[in-house]
Request: fold
Amino acid sequence: MSILLNIKKGLDLNLEGQIENPEIVGELKPTLIGVCPDDFHGLIPKAEVKEGDKVLAGDALLRDKNNPQVKVVSPVAGTVKAIVRGERRKIMNIVVEADYAEEGIKAFDVNTTDRTQIIDVLAQSGLLSMMVQRPYGVVPSPDATVRDIYVMAADTAPLAPSFDVELKGKEKELAKGVEVLSHLTSGKVYVARHESVKIADIPGAEMIDVKGHHPAALPGTVIANTSPINKGEIVWTLDGVTLARIGSLFLNGKVDWQTIVAIVGSEVKTPAYIKTVVGAQVDQLLAGKLKTESDIRIISGNVLTGKAVTKEEFLRAPYTQITVIPEGSHADEFMGWASMSPSKMSVSRSFPGHFLGRRFSPDARLLGGRRAMIMSGEYESVMPMDIMPEYLIKAILSRDIDKMEQLGIYEVIPEDFALAEYVDTSKLELQKVVSEGLDFMKKETE
Reply:
């Protein structure tokens, strides 16, 4: 019997550019793929390769300086074309030129049920780096004692891809993945699914059925409403796609780095699913699919938590969505952000569009200036967690460790504040504030 969660708070952004046909319409084998260390928060990257090196799919490109066992690997066989560095020689990207003629995939010895050996396989194969450890929202530590593991088999974010498509035909891999994860925790392996998906029960997992608006299917929401994280406890989270990759690894000895990407947004001609490889170049993914080539914002991910990228950059982790919306650089409208046009999207009842139930095509403008924090209860209206988010943000800004602990800092990571950031009248960069606060806490308390 599954756990039922009916999330009352939240907000769904009804955006143009949804996928109408839940079928994969094409396949892309990119000539270039890129891996960005910034996608793996908490990992201090050190390059394992040099330009010109030949690699197999599964060979390490990066390792964590603090935990050398933890690797980020190449999703394709080929040649390391570039190691792109920024200020102070920080690694920004490692670019691999794919060679599909080689079909080289690294194999791993997976004939084990020992926890230490399983962790080592996951770390060496690059799959541990695809998971998240709470508190702090970092790449998991191999030495951690894990209370529970949460798998999210649903995504309620704006224009998010459906897990019905991404996990179709993966029943054996999902079951094997749960079996493997069960050796890593003394607690339970939870699998959360939303009412919008039709994933069957997975043997060995505690199923959680979630109803409600976004952020109903975020790990933070599910954890907070089932078994909140207390000081000293550690929980690992991952998505259903990573679970299927873990299952595939322990069934076949190899990781399948193919992925299904949703190309969505109001500036896409025909939103659709495309099969490709993790880290594919954005330019190749969007070739011939855009309504216009100018004044657009390309986001790897969704509009709330995704990263803005250029066409020359690459699909960023978790590698499942590209959203394209208008930039709004040349927007010229009567009364600007205060316009009462019915095409204006707003959570405020002051705007006619709030009542029309239509799909909107917002641009990337801030629409209003930053100002002092307003204690209005806006955050609580969209955050279904038993915390006081406005007071927590104040405690983070003041770097008050005791208050941060008392107000629930261990329960949250930046994505939990993404919707609050959207509705925030003060235009504060809440996700950045929370990220910096968590980094400060980790540094000061560990």
Q: What stands out?
A: Residues 378-445 form one domain. Residues 84 and 90 are 8 Å apart (CA to CA). The longest strand covers residues 78-85.
